[in-house]
């Protein structure tokens, strides 16, 4: 059973998260031929101060 994990800064609404999970599941299932009912997707909100890019924190 595939598990797709998305880490992102906070800010998406519940509806945006639902739409993202639906779209990612559909795209993965179409690309791989897997049953969408068996595709797991998690979204983890990470505060900006916990992210760093190029050696610098985002927050």
Describe it for me?
With 59 residues, the chain is α+β, with helices and mostly antiparallel strands. The chain has one helix at 14-32, and strands at 3-9, 40-46, 52-53, 56-57. The relative contact order is 0.28.
Give a short overview.
With 59 residues, this protein is α+β, with helices and mostly antiparallel strands. It has one helix at residues 14-32, and strands at residues 3-9, 40-46, 52-53, 56-57. The protein has one helix and four strands, in the order E-H-E-E-E.
Strand content: 25-35%
Rg is: 14 Å
Query: Strand pairing plus helix content: what structural class?
Result: alpha+beta
How far is it from the N-terminal to the C-terminal residue, by CA? 35 Å
- Low-confidence parts: none
What's the helix count? 1
Residue share in helices? 25-40%
Read across the widest sheet, the strand sequence of neighbours is: 1-2
Order of helices and strands: EHEEE
Principal-axis shape = elongated
